Structures are given as C-alpha cells and as structure tokens.
TrEMBL record:
Name under which the protein is recorded: Ion-transport protein
Gene3D superfamilies: Clc chloride channel
Subcellular location: Membrane
InterPro entries in the cross-refs: Cl-channel_core (IPR014743), ClC (IPR001807), ClC-type_chloride_channel (IPR050368)
Organism of this sequence: Streptomyces asoensis
C-alpha cells in the first residue's frame, strides 16, 4: 500500500510553487485504492440498509401494530403524543446511559464527520434507529456518515495500517452519500465543492477517483438491493417559458428566506433546550413539542419526509394552499426542534419535504406555477439555506422532477437564492453554541 495517494489535508503554499502545473498522479498510484474503495462502498451501504430496515420494522410496530391492538387511531393526536414523547425518553436513555452517549452534540455535526472511537458507534446507531422509527423530523445522513467513518478508520487502520488515515474518512463519506442518494453523482459534487474551497494537490479527477469508486459501489449496492428512486413522478415540464423562470426565481428565493428564519432561530432554540441540562429532560420535552406539531400539521409532517413527499407529489392538487403552507411551516419548525433538542439525525431529507410543500403551496396559490418547477425551486432554496452546499442542492432539486428542462431554470434561480444565504449563519453550531458561518 505504499503507492497509495496521500489524501492529506492540503496546506497553503507559496504562490511561486504553483507557477508550474502540478503533475497528474500516475495510474499505478491510483490502482491500489480501488479494492479498499469498493469494500468501503459496499459495507457502508449495507450498514445504511441494516439501520433503515430495523427502523422500518420498529416503525411498523409503533405506528401500526400497537395502535391497532390498543384500538386507538394510528395517527391520532393521542398516539402521536405518546410515541413522540416515548421516543424522546428512549433516545434520552441512550444518550444518558449507553457508553459514548450516542456521540457528540448533534447540532455541531455536519456531513463532514469527525472520527469517533468505536465504543461510541453502537449507541449512535441505536439512537438513530429509534429516532427514525419514532417520527422526529430528521434523516439518517449525519449519524450514518459518522458511524461509517468511524468503522472505516478503525477497520482500515488494522487491515491496511500503511494506508493514510484520511483516505478512510473520504472513502466512507463518499460511499455513504452515494448510498443515501442512490447515485455517485451527489458524492462527486460534494467532494468537488469541498476541494474547490481549498488548494488541492493534483488534478481534480485524481483527487475524486477513489471517493468516486466508493460512492459508485455504495450507490450500486443500494440500487441492486433496495431499488430506491427520488423521482416524484410529477407532471412533465415541457419547454420552459418566461413565467416558469420567474416562478423558479421567486419560489427559490422565498424558500431560502423561509429556511433562513429557522437557521437564525437555531442557536436560540438549541440554547432553550440546553437550559434543561439533561438528555432525560431535553429529549422528552422535544418529543412533546414534536407531538404537538404533528397534531397541527398531520402525520405527513412526521419522520424524515422522503416517503411523505411522495404522497404529496402523487396528488399535487389534493390539498389547499393553506394546508400546504401549514405543512411547510410545521415541518420546518419540527426540523428546528428535532435538531435542537438532541435527536441524532441529519437535516437534508426533512428540508426536501419543506421545499416540496412550499413549491406545491405556490402551485396551489397560482395555477400557472408548474408543480415540477415549484417543487424543484422550493427544494433548491430551502437546501441552499440549510446545507450551504450549492451543487448538492441543485442535484437533489433536479433529480426529484427528472426533467432536463428544469436544470437551466434551477441554475438561474440558484443565483439570487445564493445571494440571500451566502456569508450568513449556517444550521450548524460550534462547541460554544454559536453558529458556523
């Protein structure tokens, strides 16, 4: 493994050293990373499938078998309060008592996971599975990436001790992102965006070669086993017109502004739950608030939101503008609360629901707003504010409607939306509770 590329953090270098083109990495240095990348990709996707499969089984018990046996409505106000509060209690117990306390404060975690010791990972997996099954508005991405990174570094360091440590980090991150989105494109875009923000050694494709192998293996494993799809099967968009461009710009900008309200409120809501000073107080309290929000917005505002978006998209005219708007605000508030009170989870998938509901609100208010344009632009604006990842936001928004003609509209709409969010606080906190910028 001595020919493995370094994969070290690039450092600032003197301008004079960059007057000459950095030579490309020879093929003999890239070939040894293929097998490790394939192995990480397959294992990372299988772990994701295992956690989501276990969570789905528990979800069926909590939201179907138990209420049916007790003779209560599956999504009655009473049952939503019971399950969400109970989920807060169970996750609170894991954070309190399980070794490792289910990892670091989730509000400080993003897609760029830190390396956690192996003893922390079982508790983090358990807390994530309980959260996914119980209904809080968070997705699996952040904790699953963290677990896969920890496992890859731990196992890789033992099986291939001569390989550089950062290699396993980037492979695990790329593999998990490829598995989460069912395509390596999202991982390639995310890595390319990260490399653009710093000076990297060698051509771009040399740097993304190994991560792309891992992401491809992860996405193909998920595709072959689970057959996921992000296409919402919305009405097809023909040749876009001036009205479509205007709608995309307005909806994306509104989405960015709306999501920035939650971003601005994030440190204050997090601080409010922090005043409770114990996971057995903060998490059950968060569960109570989420139960009340579920009662207000309906059962579609529960869970990570991807399946629920499919239900909305299956009947874009099935709800009034007021109902769509209510679901938009409730889901965004639920995302804010769940991310603030200590539940382990990511923010991308519920943000997709928020953007989709916002786009359908625009369609219900103005019939001339094509549902595909509204949904794609809404998701774009909300994701730009929540994630601050431009390429990933464009990719997710475009893949939801599976229409080539919408891509140009989204590129145009991303420009004013980006101006609204760049340089402002992100939905991630530092250890001292202040917002990352």
């Amino acid at each position: 493994m001595s020919d493995l590329p370094a994969y070290r953090e690039p450092v600032a270098q003197d301008t004079a050293r960059h007057k000459h083109t950095v030579p490309a990495t020879p093929a003999r240095a890239l070939l040894p990373v293929i097998l490790p990348a394939l192995a990480v990709g397959v294992l990372a996707s299988l772990l994701l499938l295992l956690v989501e499969g276990a969570a789905e089984q528990l979800e069926d018990v909590l939201w179907q078998d138990l209420p049916d046996a007790l003779g209560v409505g599956r999504y009655s106000v009473f049952w939503m309060m019971v399950v969400l509060t109970g989920t807060g209690v169970l996750v609170g117990l894991v954070v309190w008592k399980v070794p490792g306390h289910a990892g670091p404060e989730p509000a400080t975690m993003g897609l760029d996971a830190r390396v956690l010791p192996p003893g922390v990972l079982p508790g983090l997996l358990l807390a994530t599975a309980l959260m996914l099954a119980g209904g809080p508005s968070l997705g699996p991405e952040n904790p699953i990436i963290a677990v896969n990174v920890g496992l890859a570094v731990w196992l890789g360091g033992r099986l291939l001790p001569r390989a550089p440590g950062p290699l396993w980090v980037v492979l695990a991150e790329a593999a998990t992102i490829g598995a989460l989105f069912g395509t390596p494109v999202a991982a390639a875009l995310l890595i390319s965006e990260a490399l653009a923000g710093r000076q990297s050694e060698g051509p771009l494709w040399d740097n993304v070669f190994a991560p792309l192998v891992a992401a491809s293996a992860g996405s193909m494993t998920i595709t072959l086993v689970a057959h996921p799809t992000f296409d919402l099967d919305l009405p097809a968009l023909g040749t876009p017109g001036w009205g479509d461009m205007l709608a995309a710009v307005v909806v994306a900008s509104v989405g960015a502004l709306l999501a920035m309200c939650a971003v601005r409120a994030f440190p204050y809501v997090h601080r409010a739950f922090g005043w409770l000073r114990h996971p057995m107080l903060a998490l059950p309290a968060g569960g109570v608030v989420l139960g009340l929000l579920g009662a207000l917005g309906g059962h579609l505002t529960l869970f990570k939101g991807l399946d629920e978006v499919g239900e909305l998209a299956a009947d874009p005219d099935g709800w009034t503008a007021g109902q769509f708007a209510t679901m938009t605000v409730v889901k965004l508030t639920a995302l804010l609360v769940a991310a603030s009170c200590g539940f382990r989870g990511g923010r991308i998938f519920p943000a997709v629901f928020v953007g989709s509901a916002l786009g359908l609100t625009a369609h219900a208010l103005v019939s001339g707003v094509h549902p595909s344009v509204g949904v794609a632009a809404g998701v774009l604006g909300v994701l730009l504010a929540i994630t601050r990842q431009g390429w990933v936001s464009l990719f997710v928004a475009a893949v939801l409607v599976a229409s080539a003609s919408v891509i140009a509209l989204l590129c145009i709409a991303s420009l004013p939306a980006w101006l609204l969010v760049t340089g402002r606080p992100q939905m991630q906190l530092r250890e001292d509770g202040t917002s990352v910028r």
